[in-house]
Amino acid sequence: MILWDVATGAQIRTFKGHEDAVMTVAISPDGKTALSGSADKTLMLWDLATGQVLQIFKGHTASVRSVAFSPDGKTMLSGGEDGLVMLWDLTTGKPVRRFVRHTATVLSVAFSPDGKTGLSGSNDQLIILWDSADAQILRIFKGHSGSIRTVKFTPDGNGVFSTSSDQSIRLWRIDSDDDLLTWTQANRFVPPLTCEDKMNYRLDRARCDTTAIDSIPHPN
Question: Which of 84, 103, 149, 186 is the most exposed, having the fewest neighbouring CB atoms within 10 Å of its CB?
């Protein structure tokens, strides 16, 4: 893993420790540490200033494919080829809970802006919204016809973007059912009835005359 200077393009520091390919990396919210996930089945927490390993995380039984810091920087999510999503304590290096549902490699994980929920996308074509506190499934999104490559929350936390090997990018709403119903009622569009529509609705077989039709009382 290499840290680069964006302005000059020069290498700042090289991080060595993994015993196999590094598959994913993430930077902490405060910019002081980084996480890496590897085909060696481990994750490592690095000090960006010194290049030292601060913590090693072991628990996955296959290559780690995605990592994400929580908004407060105290925990992280990881996803792997073992189909698991795991929540870790960054201080102790211990797994806090396991999220079990996917049946194939988890390629992407993400935290919501408030850190209360997590998101995972997998080769099984599913996107799953999880409760971070108890690992319960809150919602499963189905629609892609290929593996889910990336999942990201919208900044307000009410939507999710996903990319897939089916060559599509999708935006999903994740509001509660009540919120979704309210939004739908407020934003749905009903086109105005044509003269013919009005005649059909009122079972009026007279010629289509808008003035005449509008004067007919609406049935109760």
Answer: 186
* Tens-digit pLDDT profile for residues 78-130: 999 999 999 999 999 999 999 999 999 999 999 999 999 999 999 999 999 99
**Single pTM value for the model:** 0.79
Q: Which CATH class is domain 2-176?
A: mainly beta
85-89 vs 95-99, strand pairing mode: antiparallel
Tokens of 57: 């995380």
Q: Could you tell me the residue ranges of all domains in the chain?
A: 2-176
Q: Which of 164, 140, 133, 139 is nearest to 151 (CA)?
A: 164
CA distance 40 to 3: 21
- Closest Cα to residue 59, out of 24, 95, 109? 95
Q: Give the E-state strand segments of the chain in sequence order.
A: 2-4, 11-14, 22-27, 33-38, 42-47, 53-58, 64-69, 75-80, 85-89, 95-99, 106-111, 117-122, 127-131, 137-141, 148-153, 159-164, 169-173
Looking up tokens 């996308």 gives 121
Cα 64 to Cα 28: distance, rounded to the nearest angstrom: 18
**164 and 171 in contact (C-beta within 8 Å)?**
no
CB of 29 closer than 8 Å to CB of 19? no
The two beta strands, 106-111 and 117-122, are antiparallel
Q: How far apart are CA 44 and CA 103, in angstroms?
A: 25
